[in-house]
Design brief:
- A two-stranded antiparallel ribbon has the order 1-2.
- Helix content is about 80%, strand content about 0%.
- The radius of gyration is 18 Å and the shape is globular.
- The protein has 16 helices and 2 strands.
- The two termini are about 35 Å apart.
- Helix 3 packs across helix 10 (about 160-185), helix 5 crosses helix 14 and helix 12 crosses helix 16 (about 290-310).
- The protein is an all-alpha fold and about 325 residues long.
- It has helices at about 1-10, 10-25, 40-55, 60-65, 70-95, 100-110, 115-125, 130-140, 140-155, 160-185, 190-195, 200-215, 220-250, 255-265, 270-280, 290-310, and strands spanning about 35, 40.
């Protein structure tokens, strides 16, 4: 069984691509993802499962260790919450995206880094400890910064409640992570065993979310797919390039440069999709950028990890 989960973890980008194929062949298969269960959005529940799993892999000491590396953490967090949101807004305006796609793209930019960045950093032989710390810190502060930055960028044009978004992020992100931390503290040996299965579980859950969102918006995606896919690719690569540049200019070594670059372009796209569904229900296409970004970042990331390992990262 463990071997199967390791295979899923290793080839998770294939799982994501299969989910896209299913979404286009039989789009109604996973429509339930966008429905509610006992009053809660199912997509939020699924995302909570992933973040609970992330919590079981974390320890309080990791947050303490953050203060031992203030330069790298500060650079990564500033890039996450300054560069990525402004980049998203700039690209949306340059390509004259409609209101819904603009909201979706900005949410991709304002959410914290995704847990997939840790997997790609590991495969790319980057600084895994730095990656985990950056993901954890950006996630913990997201209830404040994601609603605030989103409001600054689009609040005047599109009505939504930053306070309600704050509550949503606490419910979706902080509570599951907090519960995971408690479980890890109480049952460390169990969580250590669980760690071998969590990346595969996260991959499957993300694939389900992607399938549901893309399937529900199949026709709209087909009609505008080339533009939004191009926009997502541009956002991804510029984000990575800016991460590399900042890390290089600050004097970091290749391992840290790789990590900062990956951390900036890998977003918690599942959270952006969830927030779009919850807080912009009238803008159905707002969920699309997050779903497509998830597909692209996982596909491109796996290829880049190979390139970084083979040609870029020579540091032992």
């Amino acid at each position: 069984m463990k071997r199967l989960f390791k295979l899923i973890e290793k080839y998770y980008f294939i799982i994501i691509l299969i989910s896209v194929v299913i979404a286009f062949i039989n789009p109604k298969t996973f429509n339930w993802v966008l429905e509610k269960f006992i009053g809660m959005n199912i997509i939020n529940i699924l995302l909570g499962v992933i973040l609970f799993g992330m919590g079981t892999t974390l320890k309080i000491e990791q947050f303490v260790n953050v203060f031992k590396r203030p330069k790298e953490i500060l650079l990564g967090v500033c890039g996450q919450y300054l560069i990525m949101p402004l980049l998203a807004l700039t690209i949306a305006r340059l390509f004259s995206l409609n209101e819904a796609l603009t909201v979706g793209l900005i949410l991709v930019g304002t959410v914290p880094g995704g847990t997939a960045s840790d997997v790609i950093t590991f495969l790319a032989k980057g600084d895994l400890a730095l990656s985990v710390s950056l993901t954890a810190v950006s996630t913990v502060i997201s209830p404040i910064l994601t609603p605030l930055i989103t409001f600054i960028l689009i609040g005047n044009a599109i009505s939504f409640s930053p306070a309600d978004m704050f509550i949503s992020i606490v419910q979706i992100v902080i509570i599951p992570i907090g519960l995971g931390l408690i479980i890890n503290y109480k049952f460390p040996h169990f969580c250590k065993e669980l760690k071998d299965y969590l990346p595969a579980v996260s991959s499957i859950v993300i694939a389900i979310i992607v399938t549901g969102v893309i399937g529900s918006n199949k026709e709209a995606i087909i009609s505008s797919s080339m533009i939004i896919i191009l926009v997502i690719i541009i956002q991804y690569f510029i984000g990575m390039a800016l991460g590399f540049t900042l890390a290089y200019l600050s004097g970091m070594k290749p391992k840290q440069m790789i990590t900062i670059g990956i951390e900036l372009c890998f977003q918690n796209s599942g959270l952006s999709t969830s927030l779009a569904k919850t807080h912009f229900p009238n803008l159905t296409l707002a969920t699309v950028p997050g779903a497509l970004y998830s597909v692209w970042q996982n596909f491109a990331g796996s290829i880049l990890a190979y390139i970084f390992t083979r040609y870029f990262n020579k540091e032992e």
